[in-house]
Amino acid sequence: MDTFSETFSETSLAFAPQSEEGRLLQQINENQFAAVELQLYLDTHPEDLGAIAMYNQCHADLIRCLRDYESRCGPLLSYGLSASPCHGWGWLDGPWPWETNFS
Fold it and tell me: In angstroms, what CA-CA distances link 50 with 45, 57, 84?
């Protein structure tokens, strides 16, 4: 086994968040990554109907994950992309991102 394989084995790169918030954020990150990759592919293959269908499904999954996260953990995006709950300004509820331990 070479040094690279010893250093970067599959198990050492695996990230399995333990909290519900961490799992939801991981799902969001995975869907965002897939959406960006598909978007880049579609920039050069705009007539690939299979890729368009995959992008549309990925987009729907991403929106579902974002809504799920925000309903359980609070607003995720600023600048008018996340609604504030009716009971007050949601950005003041809960810990700030740097105060959260995702492990």
Answer: 11, 11, 36
